[in-house]
C-alpha cells in the first residue's frame, strides 16, 4: 500500500475547482452589480420622466385655466387638444427611441464583455499553465536532487557507522570510558541522528513524488505499543518522566506496516518527551474503536494554541520556530504514513495543560474510512 500517486492531480483539481467557483462568484457579483446599476438608471429616468410629465400637466392645466377665463372658442380648444395629442405622440416616440437606444447600448456592452472576458481568462489560463509547467519542472529537479543526495549521504553514513564499529571493537580492550571507545560512542550517536534526518528527507521525497511505500501485513498493535514504550523508557527516565501505557485489550490484531506505525508512534513519543518538563507524565493508549484501532500519546507539556493544531502537521513546522534539533518534518511524515494506511491523525490541546495526539488505522487492510483525511470536529 502507498500514498496515491494521483495526489498532485487531486490538488490541481481542487485548485481548478476553487478557481472555477471564484470565477462563478465573480461573474454572479458582476451581473448583480450591473443589474443594480441598470435598475438605478431606469429608476432615475423614470423619476425624471414623471417630473417632466407632472410639469407638463401643470402647464397645461394652467393654460386651460387661462383659456376658460378668456372664453376661448370651441374650435381653439379642439385645435389645442390636437396639438397636445401630437406632442404626446412625439414624446412617446422619442422616449421609445431613447429606450431602444439604451437597450442596444446595454446589449452591445454585454456582448463586448462576453467577448473580452473569455479572451482575458484564456490568457490567464495560459499563463497559469506555463507557471505550473515551470513549477513542476523545478519541483521534479528538486526532488530528484534531494533523492540522489539523500541516497549518497546514506551510503557515506553507512561507512562512518562501520568505521565506528571497528573503532569500538579496537577500543574494547581498553577502558570503555576513555579513548577510542568514547569516540566510537559519540560517532554512533551523531550518526544515528544524521540517519534519522536523512530518512526524513528521503520519506518527504517519496511523499512528494507519490511513492511512499508501506508493506501491510497482520500484526499485534498491542505488542508494538509495548515495544515502543520500552524503547523510550530510558530517555524518559533521564528526565524523570513517567510513561503510562494502557491497552484496552490484548492482543490488538490489525493489518498494518509495523515499521511505519512504529515510526509514527516513535515520533509522537519522542515529541512528548521533548516537550514535557522533568517530572511530568506521558500517557500512551491503544484501543479498538468502530472498525479501527485508535492510538493516542498525551503529555503534560506547555500545550499548543488552538489555531496551530492543523499547522503542526505541515512541512518544516517547529514549535516556536527556534528549536533546530530537527527539520520539522516528523509530524508531516506521520500524517502521510497514517493516510497511507487509510487512517486519520489529529491533535487536541489545552495551553499549560498538555497535548494529545491521536491517530487511527483500519483493523483490516482496504477498509478505508470515508473521512480518512479529515480530523474530527
TrEMBL record:
GO terms for molecular function: phosphorelay sensor kinase activity. CDD domains: HATPase_EvgS-ArcB-TorS-like, HisKA. Its EC number is 2.7.13.3. It is an enzyme of class 2 (transferase). The keyword Phosphoprotein applies. Residues 1-25, 39-75 are annotated as: Disordered. Residues 148-365 form the Histidine kinase domain. It comes from the Bacteria. Pfam families: HATPase_c, HisKA. Keywords: Kinase, Phosphoprotein, Transferase, Two-component regulatory system. It catalyses: ATP + protein L-histidine = ADP + protein N-phospho-L-histidine. Residues 40-69 have a biased composition (Basic and acidic residues). SMART domains: HATPase_c, HisKA. This is histidine kinase. It comes from Sorangium cellulosum.
Amino acid at each position: 500500500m502507498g500514498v496515491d500517486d494521483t495526489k498532485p492531480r487531486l490538488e490541481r483539481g481542487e485548485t481548478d475547482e476553487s478557481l472555477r467557483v471564484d470565477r462563478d462568484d465573480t461573474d454572479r457579483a458582476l451581473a448583480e452589480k450591473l443589474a443594480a446599476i441598470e435598475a438605478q438608471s431606469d429608476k432615475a429616468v423614470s423619476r425624471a420622466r414623471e417630473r417632466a410629465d407632472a410639469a407638463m400637466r401643470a402647464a397645461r392645466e394652467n393654460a386651460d385655466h387661462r383659456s376658460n377665463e378668456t372664453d376661448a372658442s370651441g374650435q381653439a380648444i379642439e385645435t389645442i387638444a390636437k396639438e397636445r395629442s401630437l406632442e404626446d405622440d412625439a414624446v412617446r416616440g422619442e422616449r421609445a427611441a431613447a429606450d431602444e437606444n439604451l437597450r442596444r447600448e446595454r446589449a452591445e456592452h454585454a456582448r463586448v464583455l462576453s467577448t473580452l472576458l473569455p479572451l482575458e481568462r484564456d490568457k490567464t489560463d495560459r499563463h497559469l499553465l506555463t507557471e505550473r509547467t515551470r513549477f513542476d519542472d523545478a519541483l521534479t529537479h528538486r526532488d530528484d536532487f534531494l533523492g540522489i543526495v539523500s541516497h549518497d549521504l546514506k551510503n557515506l553514513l553507512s561507512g562512518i557507522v562501520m568505521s565506528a564499529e571497528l573503532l569500538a571493537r579496537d577500543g574494547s580492550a581498553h577502558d570503555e570510558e576513555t579513548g577510542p571507545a568514547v569516540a566510537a560512542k559519540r560517532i554512533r550517536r551523531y550518526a544515528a541522528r544524521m540517519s534519522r534526518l536523512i530518512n526524513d528527507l528521503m520519506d518527504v521525497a517519496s511523499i512528494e513524488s507519490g511513492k511512499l511505500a508501506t508493506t501491510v501485513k497482520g500484526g499485534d498493535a498491542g505488542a508494538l505499543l509495548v515495544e515502543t514504550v520500552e524503547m523510550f523508557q530510558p530517555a524518559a527516565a533521564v528526565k524523570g518522566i513517567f510513561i503510562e501505557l494502557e491497552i484496552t485489550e490484548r492482543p490488538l490484531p490489525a493489518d498494518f506496516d509495523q515499521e511505519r506505525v512504529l515510526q509514527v508512534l516513535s515520533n509522537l513519543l519522542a515529541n512528548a518527551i521533548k516537550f514535557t518538563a522533568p517530572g511530568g507524565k506521558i500517557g500512551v493508549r491503544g484501543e479498538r474503536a468502530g472498525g479501527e484501532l485508535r492510538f493516542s500519546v498525551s503529555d503534560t507539556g506547555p500545550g499548543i494554541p488552538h489555531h496551530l493544531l492543523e499547522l503542526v502537521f505541515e512541512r518544516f513546522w517547529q514549535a516556536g520556530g527556534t528549536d533546530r534539533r530537527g527539520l520539522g518534518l516528523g509530524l508531516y511524515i506521520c500524517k502521510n504514513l497514517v493516510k497511507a494506511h487509510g487512517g486519520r491523525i489529529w491533535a487536541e490541546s489545552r495551553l499549560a495543560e498538555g497535548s494529545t495526539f491521536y491517530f487511527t488505522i483500519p483493523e483490516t487492510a482496504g477498509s478505508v474510512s470515508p473521512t480518512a483525511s479529515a480530523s474530527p470536529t
